Amino acid sequence: xxxxxxxxxxxxxxxxxxxxxxxxxxxxxxxxxxxxxxxxxxxxxxxxxxxxxxxxxxxxxxxxxxxxxxxxxxxxxxxxxxxxxxxxxxxxxxxxxxxxxxxxxxxxxxxxxxxxxxxxxxxxxxxxxxxxxxxxxxxxxxxxxxxxxxxxxxxxxxxxxxxxxxxxxxxxxxxxxxxxxxxxxxxxxxxxxxxxxxxxxxxxxxxxxxxxxxxxxxxxxxxxxxxxxxxxxxxxxxxxxxxxxxxxxxxxxxxxxxxxxxxxxxxxxxxxxxxxxxxxxxxxxxxxxxxxxxxxxxxxxxx
Length: 303
What we know:
The chain is an all-beta fold. Helices cover 0% and strands 49% of the residues. It has a domain at 1-104: TolB, C-terminal domain (Neuraminidase, 6 Propeller). The chain has strands at 18-23, 29-34, 37-42, 48-52, 65-71, 76-81, 84-89, 95-100, 112-118, 123-128, 133-138, 144-149, 162-168, 173-178, 184-188, 194-198, 208-216, 221-228, 235-240, 246-250, 264-270, 275-280, 287-292, 298-302. The strands form six sheets. The protein has a four-stranded antiparallel sheet with strand order 1-2-3-4, with no helix packed on it. It has a four-stranded antiparallel sheet with strand order 5-6-7-8, with no helix packed on it. The mean pLDDT is 88.
């Protein structure tokens, strides 16, 4: 059993405004981006330790982090703010600026909301929702280019407020969720061409205002956290990677027991144990919710 914490379980500073997380697949801890710091939450005790920021580690100050990705082999964490990408040493907490709005390179970041990372190729793909584009970034040099946008890069389906992204390694593509829409768009990693994976024409419950995407590759599906499902309440859905058809995993008043979602911020998928952790910070509170992928039951494990 994994234990998570905020102000009521474990020792250490309380959560302030957590918006991103990176789950350690070995099950030892979860890293949480909380305002201008990154915390390590011990899963055995619930104790919280600042590992970077607020006087821990050197380097540029962190701002609100919208997504993080763990490189456990090299004990590094990649973290994305609104307009900058950082690499954090998990041993020292030292921070290195990889790329961002003020490094003189183009395209400039304006408002980045999510990222997907392939550690093998040292590549990241960022969503800039203001420019409605997918930016490909070299994690070593910070060099980058627009892989897909509505102007000149790639052909096919037009982006409508792209907000979330996940890597579909098996199919050599990126999946992009529309924050104001009801579509998941597949982006070819070779040429930036866009096609619809799932929208209103596919079978299954409605998607509204897609917030977060995750990958459950062993079951050939993407996971989607939305701000509105079939009952117009936030929900967690699965999208078949072959057909694009959708099934509901968890939805208040429909599938699963427990509290409703609020402002979903990030998703960590534990496919082996068929569970999803969603961090949210709506209504001025901070909560980490465990969603059972089989029953749809929802349990707040930290609030």
